[in-house]
Amino acid sequence: MNALLCSLLVSATFVTLCNAQCYVILNENTPDNLSNECKDLDGVTHPMNSTWKTESCVECSCGQDEINCCNTVAVPVGYDKIKCQKIFNKETCSYKVVERENAEKICSVSGWIL
Q1: Alpha-carbon torsion angle 88, 89, 90, 92, nearest 10
Q2: Where residue 103 sits, what CATH number does that domain have?
Q3: How far apart are CA 29 and CA 2, in angstroms?
């Protein structure tokens, strides 16, 4: 019982510190019909124990019972939102923060949230 409580405490602390945006998709397996693949929300099938990244920069993994997916994009916080703007690059799944008046000048960012 103590081991269970300790592991729950560690998990809760990790989730609090990480603040990642994750979700789970349950596989539609029945006990007599176990599949060796997962079907994602777009209807695409993936092999068991595989990982992939979606067009929206979400990394997913296929397990026997579920697909686990988490956002991989760090979002900038703590920058001058009047003087600067964030720009998302879909190819690199990342943001950069630049001046509104001159996009060649990078702005200082004090933190990033995943």
Answers
A1: -130
A2: 2.20.25.590
A3: 33
